[in-house]
């Protein structure tokens, strides 16, 4: 599916350059809000400039990578902007990640330094920072400034080869590394440049008609690439970016209140988060609460269930706000396709994802790289200006996923692993071509979860499958099928395993169900028989449900008998 590239702008600037242009236009407009704290564009720019100068004084050079692990707040965005102004790229690490995942991300990205706070490190490393890391830490104090106690020596420098240009004004300079689940059982870092993000902004912002009057939320973790769109969508158009506190993000009721108080106009949500918000809006709308100020709601991160969206239209008229579904991948810089949803799509089979945004091509191909017919499923291959630079330190994986474009000589295609069909010119998402899963908006590689579980001393083998849901395109959770090591006298229960895994995996990767088996069933071809595993799970669900009904009946009979015995002791008759 090809879009006309004549509509695209020339790319001769950087993300921080775009922000500085808005600062010149709107120096006294509020750029950033968090709870009761606010920064104007001029204040944000001055603070970021001061931190960028401190970074340069500490030895940070153009082309370096700087890891950023800070809690939600103004300092997250200040330091992110400072890193880019210093000519470096940022590696966002969620401070809520388990320590083993944090250490892997630091080891594989090999940043020149880590910007963080002492309380985060004290919580992650109770016995103290590892020696290899302590030499790289630059502390961020509570006043959104850097506390530099040392400089980066030339002997410590670790340049990032073949991925970025050292010219800070060059739009091809690396902007960030964001990690996604990896098929080897470890996350892989995706390298994205300024050029790719600017291409996204130039393609989509005009379609949304965003300007300096808009209020955006930063709802998502910096480690999730949806945040890239949220931050720069606001700060390159003169809008205000409202950082959502973590406790409010977890509470649909509190988030609904924030949306009203801050008069948010541009909201970006995974469908799962939006369904929860819809339930709140349905309830408080019936109580006469004022309508939200939203103009645009943009969905991303997982397949959309149109039947769930129908509930929103019972609260708000179609188009007020506009609901826009955007399919995207980290490797293609957040968003790839666009479609504005209308009520007549509510009965649509599949998840409508529309058409490619300007500057991108989406091809549906079979395993021979031939086009599939309309109505037939094919794997989505994406080409165009938003393709990531590649995988950090993984030239083999980069070569296998970013391939030569057979339809545009000299260009690349990214093999998404996602299946779609085309009907009447519109794309509909079908599912993953490989084993990678989407669970509540998060991309999860089962191999990563399996590898973590198999490190437990009692577990020999593990197979992870998605828990079936009413929406065939997404999963309600993960099921772990386990084979114990021989001669184990006691097997760890679900609570014990979850506690063990929290040191290695983020919460969204933890299985919801654990089932022990004697062996893992195989097909006649020697492959894992997933159908047999799911049948076993359904059987267990049925048995558990039946047992719960028996237990409930037994409890009621016990209460009745005890009550009757008490009455008999008081001289009352059991029967009349």
Automatic annotation (TrEMBL):
Its cofactor is pantetheine 4'-phosphate. One of its GO terms (molecular function) is phosphopantetheine binding. One of its GO terms (biological process) is amino acid activation for nonribosomal peptide biosynthetic process. Coiled coil: none annotated. PROSITE patterns: AMP_BINDING (PS00455). Keywords: Phosphopantetheine. Residues 19-392 form the AMP-dependent synthetase/ligase domain. It comes from the Bacteria. InterPro entries: AA_adenyl_dom, AMP-bd_C, AMP-bd_C_sf, AMP-binding_CS, AMP-dep_synth/lig_dom, ANL_N_sf. One of its GO terms (cellular component) is cytosol. Residues 448-527 form the AMP-binding enzyme C-terminal domain. The keyword Iron does not apply. PANTHER family: NONRIBOSOMAL PEPTIDE SYNTHETASE (PTHR45527), PLIPASTATIN SYNTHASE SUBUNIT B (PTHR45527:SF14). This is Uncharacterized protein. It comes from Cellvibrio mixtus.
């Amino acid at each position: 599916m090809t879009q006309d590239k004549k509509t695209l702008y020339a790319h001769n600037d950087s993300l921080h350059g775009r922000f500085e242009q808005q600062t010149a236009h709107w120096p006294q407009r509020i750029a950033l809000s968090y709870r009761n704290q606010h920064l104007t564009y001029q204040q944000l720019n001055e603070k970021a400039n001061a931190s960028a100068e401190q970074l340069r004084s500490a030895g940070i050079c153009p082309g370096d990578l700087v890891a950023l692990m800070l809690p939600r707040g103004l300092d997250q965005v200040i330091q992110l902007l400072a890193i880019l102004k210093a000519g470096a790229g940022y590696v966002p690490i969620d401070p809520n990640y388990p320590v083993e995942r944090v250490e892997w991300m630091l080891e594989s990205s090999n940043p020149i330094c880590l910007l963080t706070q002492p309380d985060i490190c004290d919580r992650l490393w109770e016995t103290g920072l590892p020696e290899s890391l302590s030499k790289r830490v630059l502390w961020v104090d509570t006043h959104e400034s850097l506390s530099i106690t040392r400089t980066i020596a030339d002997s410590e420098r670790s340049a990032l080869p073949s991925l970025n240009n050292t010219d800070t004004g060059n739009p091809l300079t690396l902007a960030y590394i964001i990690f996604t689940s990896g098929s080897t059982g470890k996350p892989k870092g995706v390298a994205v440049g300024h050029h790719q993000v600017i291409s996204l902004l130039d393609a989509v912002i005009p379609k949304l008609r965003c300007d300096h009057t808009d209020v955006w939320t930063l709802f998502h973790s910096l480690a999730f690439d949806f945040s890239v769109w949220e931050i720069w969508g606001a700060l390159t158009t003169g809008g205000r970016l409202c950082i959502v506190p973590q406790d409010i993000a977890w509470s649909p009721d509190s988030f609904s209140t924030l949306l009203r108080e801050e008069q948010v106009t541009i909201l970006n949500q995974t469908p799962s988060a939006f369904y929860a918000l819809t339930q709140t809006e349905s309830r408080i709308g019936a109580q006469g609460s004022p309508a939200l100020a939203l103009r645009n709601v943009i969905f991303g991160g997982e397949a959309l269930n149109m039947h769930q969206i129908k509930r929103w239209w019972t609260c708000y008229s179609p188009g007020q706000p506009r609901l826009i579904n955007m399919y995207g991948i980290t490797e293609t810089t957040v968003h790839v396709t666009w479609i504005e949803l209308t009520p007549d799509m509510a009965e649509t089979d599949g998840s409508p994802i529309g058409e490619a945004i300007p500057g991108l091509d989406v091809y549906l191909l079979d395993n021979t790289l031939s086009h599939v017919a309309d109505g037939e499923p094919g794997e989505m291959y994406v080409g165009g200006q938003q393709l990531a630079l590649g995988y950090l330190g993984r030239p083999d994986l980069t070569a296998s996923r970013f391939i030569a474009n057979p339809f545009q000589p000299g260009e690349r295609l990214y093999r998404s692993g996602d299946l779609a069909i085309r009907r009447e010119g519109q794309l509909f998402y079908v599912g993953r071509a490989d084993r990678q899963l989407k669970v509540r908006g998060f991309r999860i590689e089962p191999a990563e979860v399996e590898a973590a579980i198999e490190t437990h001393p009692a577990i020999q083998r593990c197979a992870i499958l998605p828990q079936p849901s009413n929406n065939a395109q997404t999963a309600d959770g993960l099921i772990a099928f386990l084979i114990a090591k021989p001669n184990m006298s006691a097997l760890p229960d679900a609570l014990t395993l979850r506690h063990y895994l929290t040191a290695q995996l983020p919460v969204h990767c933890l299985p919801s169900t654990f089932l022990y088996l004697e062996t893992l069933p195989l097909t006649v071809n020697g492959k894992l028989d997933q159908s047999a595993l799911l049948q076993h799970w359904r059987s267990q669900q049925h048995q558990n449900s039946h047992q719960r009904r028996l237990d409930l009946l037994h409890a009621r009979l016990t209460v009745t008998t005890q009550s009757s015995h008490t009455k008999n002791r008081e001289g009352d008759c059991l029967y009349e």
